[in-house]
Design a protein that fits this description.
The chain contains 1 helix and 4 strands, in the order βαβββ. It is of the alpha+beta class. It has one domain: Macrophage Migration Inhibitory Factor, CATH 3.30.429. The strands form 2 sheets. The chain has a two-stranded parallel ribbon. The protein has a two-stranded antiparallel sheet with strand order 3-4. The chain is elongated and about 40 Å long.
Length: about 60
């Protein structure tokens, strides 16, 4: 059972997250030949204050 874990900054719409789930699922089906019913995708949204880039939070960088 392929399992993909995606970490993203908070703020994506439900539609965007739905698209990520669909496209990652399809990529795994094509890449490894897994039956679609066995693919799992987990999106974890990270607060911008908890994501650092070059020593600065994503929030402070305006991301």
């Amino acid at each position: 059972m392929p399992f993909a874990q995606i970490h993203m900054l908070e703020g994506r719409t439900e539609e965007q997250k739905r698209a990520v789930i669909e496209k990652v699922t399809q990529a795994l089906v094509e890449a490894v030949g897994a039956p679609i019913s066995t693919v799992r995708v987990l999106i974890q949204e990270v607060p911008k204050t908890n994501w650092g880039i070059a020593g600065v939070s994503a929030k402070d960088l305006g991301r």
